[in-house]
Amino acid sequence: SGGLPEIACLTPSRGAMPEPGEVDGTLETRQIGYEGRVFAKTGSLTHVNSLSGYLVTEDDRELIFSILSNASGVRSSEVRVGIDRIVEALASLGAPIVTEPLDSERRLAP
């Protein structure tokens, strides 16, 4: 993999973000197998979970992502599993380029 590009304004942010498998990091047990390709910060409050960061896809595309869940009615542990699956799908398969925002009929049901 070519890794993430060195963009001056983003480089300090990357260095502050945990990677999968880092001891005592927030991703210590998450995204295992994506070391060196996923750099992200977790966030949580009551009924809110998030993961935001950078990743490199299998086809070497570099993506910035942010996934948020608010008041889903699902246990936080299950939400984290869902968030991790989204990140793993992006990293493993590459992300399609979306050129238009989704209209209300195409959005996922709450």
Protein architecture, described:
The protein is built from 2 helices and 3 strands. With 110 residues, it is an alpha+beta fold. Strands 1-2-3 form a 3-stranded antiparallel beta sheet, covered by helices on one side.
What's this model, at a glance?
This protein has 110 residues and is of the alpha+beta class. Helices cover 21% and strands 24% of the residues. The chain has helices at residues 11-15, 76-93, and strands at residues 38-45, 48-56, 62-70.
> Major β-sheet, in short?
3 strands, antiparallel
Shape: globular
Low-pLDDT stretches are 106-110
Helix content: 10-25%
Strand content: 15-25%
- The largest beta-sheet arranges its strands as 1-2-3
Total number of helices: 2
Topology:
Blueprint: H1 11-15, E1 38-45, E2 48-56, E3 62-70, H2 76-93
Antiparallel strand pairs: 1-2, 2-3
What are the key terms here?
disordered C terminus; 2 helices; alpha+beta; 110 residues
